[in-house]
């Protein structure tokens, strides 16, 4: 779709001659992008934001968009269940952080970027994006393979005239670092959990927020996928899932403890579980407003 869009634009403009990237669009107000963690389901379209973004307003930004996220993990995670480690991808740097990932994306899409710069007078990726790894205070430098979610206070990572953003480490083992973010604006506050199991840090970050967007996995569904009796290996896998994600029957407790006004469920596993079942499960423990998220949903603040 993206490629087709680009071709169509070109054909339209070719008739007009002297083709250039068009002006405004939904991305012309984009200031920053925040990455919770570097699992592919969370960053797989990052390149599209900046390659196709120039056709949707990004070309108009007056300064590079800040791309903010976790740094390099620093070491490979342990092999789940023990045993010998399999092949290592990119052994010279097997756990790149946000800045390195962006540099690698630029390299991977160099043909496209260079074509757009020459053919469409597009801005260069360095004019569009400035990547930054989140630096944690030194006393919080955790052992990625040990206790990697220490009790901590939120850390500020961004501020402009409209929004102040803080983050906190959450539990998505073996992923490290994994962050949740809080966005404070005049209109209200929004907390985004990222992928996490139940952790006191998230409750701390979300205290009193107007909106908490939180992931959820159905324990019932998982029970069906991995029925009892479970072998030790399957049981370990079962625990692994619940150690990295928050069961639906716990999300309401998290939101209630944090005292948020509205809870929005997202990153739903499974994605085809009926909305009513999510509601029934989560509402048992949560007294605020509940929204079961769907793609392209917009929730206004006040
Ligand atoms: Zn993840
Ligand atoms: Zn995920």
TrEMBL record:
Protein name as catalogued: Ribonuclease BN (tRNA processing enzyme)
Keyword Lipid biosynthesis: no
Pfam families: Lactamase_B_2 (PF12706)
Residues in Metallo-beta-lactamase domain copies: 147-267
InterPro entries xref list: AtsA-like_MBL-fold, Metallo-B-lactamas, RibonucZ/Hydroxyglut_hydro
Highest taxon, organism lineage: Bacteria
Keywords: Endonuclease, Hydrolase, Nuclease
């Amino acid at each position: 779709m993206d490629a087709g869009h680009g071709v169509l634009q070109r054909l339209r403009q070719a008739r007009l001659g002297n083709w250039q990237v068009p002006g405004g669009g939904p991305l012309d107000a984009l200031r920053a992008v925040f990455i919770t963690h570097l699992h592919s389901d969370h960053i797989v379209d990052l390149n599209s934001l900046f390659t196709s973004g120039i056709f949707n307003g990004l070309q108009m930004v007056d300064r590079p968009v800040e791309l903010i996220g976790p740094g390099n993990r620093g070491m490979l995670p342990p092999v789940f269940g023990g045993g010998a480690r399999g092949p290592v991808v990119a052994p010279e740097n097997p756990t790149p952080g946000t800045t390195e990932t962006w540099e690698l994306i630029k390299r991977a899409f160099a043909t496209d970027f260079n074509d757009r710069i020459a053919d469409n007078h597009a801005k260069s990726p360095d004019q569009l994006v400035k990547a930054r790894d989140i630096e944690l205070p030194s006393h919080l430098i955790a052992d990625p393979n040990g206790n990697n979610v220490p009790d901590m206070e939120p850390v500020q990572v961004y501020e402009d005239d409209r929004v102040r953003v803080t983050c906190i480490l959450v539990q998505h083992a073996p992923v490290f670092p994994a962050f949740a973010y809080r966005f404070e604006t005049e209109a209200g506050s929004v907390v985004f959990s990222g992928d996490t199991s139940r952790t006191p840090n998230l409750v701390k970050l979300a205290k009193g927020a107007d909106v908490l967007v939180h992931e959820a996995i159905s324990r019932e569904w998982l029970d069906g996928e991995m029925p009892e009796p479970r072998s030790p290996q399957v049981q370990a896998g079962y625990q692994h899932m619940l150690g990295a994600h928050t069961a639906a029957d716990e999300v309401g407790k998290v939101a209630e403890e944090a005292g948020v006004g509205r809870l929005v469920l997202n990153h739903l596993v499974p994605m085809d579980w009926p909305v009513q079942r999510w509601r029934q499960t989560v509402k048992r423990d949560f007294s605020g407003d509940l929204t079961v998220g769907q793609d392209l949903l917009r929730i206004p603040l006040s």
